[in-house]
UniProtKB/TrEMBL annotation:
It comes from Campylobacter taeniopygiae. Residues 30-177 form the Outer membrane lipoprotein BamD-like domain. HAMAP family: OM_assembly_BamD. Gene3D superfamilies: Tetratricopeptide repeat domain (1.25.40.10). Keywords: Cell outer membrane, Membrane, Signal. This is Outer membrane protein assembly factor BamD. The keyword Cytoplasm does not apply. It holds the Pfam family YfiO. It comes from the Bacteria. Residues 1-22 form the signal peptide.
């Protein structure tokens, strides 16, 4: 009888501990409660928790208006932390759920800005530069009167300058290695650039990085 009694107690303790573990996560919150929790996560600098709680909010409140604000906040938070792919994820989610002609230019601007902020070193990310260059050109063509025109134009100029600098570096490499024909192709690209024959200060790299950046 005593053995059965103690076995019953042990089973009860086990089940209660399992119950505690399965209830550690948040669920069945109102949209406002989820929103406040996500803001708290961001204040605590815990983006991973914020992402997790967004999933809970989105699954329980599929089309709640608070999701619109939450998506933009999370996208910006990831941009600030240089997590640009996650930022693009939230912007894509925003576009799917709340995109309209009213805010389409703003969302595309934020995606371009995320790519621009991801670009850090002038002779890396050639594919990113060319992709961003095209996205900006398409954006300016699609939204010629957008209020974000000056900001995007500035980004385009910087991308164009970075590509000019990269082409100049590749040209020098080909000349140094005896590939004259290839060097002349890049020389022609430089001649066609708006920056050709302009006085340009090349970006300087820290000495510890320059060792690895040289071709």
């Amino acid at each position: 009888m005593k053995k059965n009694f103690f076995l019953f107690i042990l089973i009860g303790i086990f089940l209660s501990s399992c119950s505690v573990k399965t209830n550690e996560g948040l669920y069945n919150l109102t949209a406002k409660e989820w929103y406040k929790q996500i803001i708290k996560d961001l204040q605590d600098k815990d983006l991973e928790k914020a992402d997790e709680h967004y999933n809970g909010m989105a699954s329980e409140h599929v089309s709640n208006p608070l999701l619109e604000t939450t998506l933009i906040i999370l996208a910006q938070a990831h941009i600030d932390e240089e997590e640009y792919q996650l930022a693009e994820f939230y912007l894509d989610e925003y576009n799917k759920k709340f995109g309209s002609s009213r805010n389409a230019d703003y969302i595309r601007y934020l995606k371009i800005k995320a790519k621009f902020d991801a670009f850090g070193v002038p002779n890396r990310n050639q594919a990113l530069m060319l992709e961003s260059q095209k996205e900006i050109s398409d954006f300016l063509q699609d939204y010629p009167d957008t209020e974000y025109n000056p900001l995007v134009q500035t980004m385009l100029t910087k991308f164009n300058l970075a590509i000019f600098y990269l082409n100049d570096t590749i040209k020098d490499l080909y000349y140094r290695t005896g590939h004259t024909q290839s060097a002349e192709i890049y020389e022609q690209k430089l001649r066609e650039s708006e920056f050709y024959k302009q006085s340009i200060i090349k970006p300087e790299l820290p000495w510890y990085r320059s060792i690895f950046e040289k071709f």
